[in-house]
Specification:
With 458 residues, the protein is mainly α. It contains 18 helices and two strands. The chain has a two-stranded antiparallel sheet with strand order 1-2. It has helices at residues 16-27, 30-42, 46-74, 78-88, 97-128, 137-148, 151-170, 173-200, 205-213, 222-235, 242-247, 256-283, 295-306, 311-345, 349-370, 388-416, 419-426, 431-454; strands at 378-380, 383-385. The protein has one domain (16-336, 394-454): Hydantoin permease, CATH 1.10.4160. 75% of the residues lie in helices and 1% in strands.
């Protein structure tokens, strides 16, 4: 541990709200604005949303509290935090692998996440200049196909996004991460509210509200329940080192429980607002379907924007929103690796940010080529994947590393850590027993169920 247990060598958030904004920025990303709307559409709307909210409460919040608690107690990068805590609790050093897995997962996720965020950057300029507005539905699909199959263009946008990420991280906790999220998170919320206001004037807002909040339990299948459970876990950025790293910068007298609840509520609110912004627009066009899948954002919505009054302006705002959401997540994904390089290799923050960013950029080239020269098909548990390395990285991280990491965090916090230590860090009274029950029994079992489902065992 650090000499002063109360402050990380990397710095500290200036306030509880700075941490809340940063952690919410980490959680809020493409999963909220890109993935949540289309999986909600695929699984019938309201009933799926109810299950998702329930899973956030019983899985997401307890594991987030555990991860923040471990980060604040260790005050180092996730790798060194888990090594120190395992030693302090008299446990085997193998528990440090939770940290290694989290840092590696964040690194790999950012390598392809940056490429997808680059799509958003490209669409900002294409929408703002009227290229999308002038095209018909076939033309818009051709624009998307041309973008992802051109490695030079993808590499350029991937590079731009990684530079944006590295600049923020290189500036440190207070001058980089904190200043960025203080600006970007309010901007993200303002953009979302403007788009919700726009959706309210489509004439189909009530349909969007009904779709999101009126449950039809006949559409709720076992697959929908497990998908909701998995998404609740992934959307909060758990198991990838980011929340543990941000927790290490949390002031000692800040309530972990209250901040975790606020972050989870804020993350959920953004996902619901994204649904309220998107579904009324989709329902405005009979040929569009809410369950259009991953193409909903990049191929379906541009068709709607191209045919609506003010669509060019609001379409541009929407893709700016996509980029902002991705940016706030990307800086948290690379921070654990940067912190480890500073602690273990004696690098300056700027140098660590540059080396981490370059390494991530290089690995990202494999994803850039996955949509063209390196594309190949493979079968994963009965589903044919077409984009080679990109799909492999996505499956490895989202389907394996994150749920396993989250489950191990719950086991370590609930079973390996002495209750007096977790009680001291969480500073809970009567609700401590509830958290202990959820983190020891409920959360790890349900996450294990998700893992079994992913591999087709149940």
């Amino acid at each position: 541990m650090t000499e002063d247990k109360n402050i990380s060598i990397h710095g500290q958030w200036s306030s509880r709200w700075a941490f809340i904004l940063a952690a919410t920025g980490s959680a809020v990303g493409l999963g909220n604005i890109w993935k949540f709307p289309y999986i909600t559409g695929e699984y019938g709307g309201g009933a799926f949303v109810l299950v998702y909210l329930f899973c956030v409460a019983i899985i997401g919040i307890p594991i987030m509290m555990a991860e923040v608690m471990l980060g604040r107690r260790g005050r180092q990068s996730p790798i060194n935090t888990m090594r120190s805590l395992a030693k302090a609790e008299g446990r085997h050093g193998i528990w440090s692998w939770i940290g290694w897995m989290g840092v590696l997962a964040g690194f790999l996720i950012l390598s392809y996440y940056s490429v997808i965020a680059g799509w958003g950057l490209a669409y900002v300029f294409r929408t703002a200049t009227g290229v999308m507005h002038a095209a018909d539905s076939a033309g818009i699909k051709d624009i998307f196909g041309e973008l992802v199959s051109d490695p030079e263009k993808l590499l350029a946008w991937h590079t731009c996004f990684m530079v944006l990420t590295m600049v923020v991280v290189a500036r440190g906790v207070k001058h980089g991460l904190e200043k960025a999220v203080r600006f970007l998170m309010p901007l993200l919320l303002i953009l979302l509210l403007i788009l919700v206001g726009y959706a309210m004037n489509t004439g189909h807002f009530s349909e969007g509200v009904e779709f999101l909040f009126k449950p039809d339990f006949s559409k709720l299948t076992g697959g929908a329940i497990l998908t909701a459970m998995g998404h609740a876990f992934f959307t909060l950025s758990l198991g990838m080192g980011a929340i543990m790293m941000y927790g290490s910068y949390l002031p000692e007298n800040t309530s972990i429980a209250k901040t975790s609840i606020i972050i989870s509520l804020a993350d959920t609110m953004v996902a619901l607002l994204a649904g309220l912004a998107i579904f009324p627009i989709v329902f405005s066009f009979p040929e569009l379907a809410p369950g259009a899948g991953p193409g909903l954002i990049f191929q379906t919505l541009p068709i709607a924007f191209a045919n609506m009054p003010g669509g060019q302006f609001f379409g541009t705002l929407f893709f700016v929103l996509i980029v902002v959401a991705a940016w706030t997540s990307s800086i948290s994904l690379i921070e654990p690796a940067v912190a480890w390089l500073i602690e273990n290799r004696g690098m300056t923050r700027v140098r660590a940010a540059v080396w981490s960013g370059l390494a991530t950029w290089l690995v990202g080239i494999a994803t850039v080529l996955s949509f063209s020269h390196w594309a190949f098909d493979f079968n994963f548990l009965g589903t044919v994947k077409h984009n080679g390395v990109f799909d492999i990285l996505d499956i490895l991280t989202a389907n394996i590393m994150l749920p396993v990491g989250g489950m191990l965090i719950a086991i370590f916090a609930g079973w390996m850590m002495k209750p007096k230590h977790s009680k001291e860090e969480l500073a809970l009274n009567r609700s401590y027993k509830l958290w202990q029950f959820l983190i020891k029994y409920v959360a790890p079992v349900l996450v294990f169920v998700v893992i079994l489902n992913i591999f087709g065992i149940i």
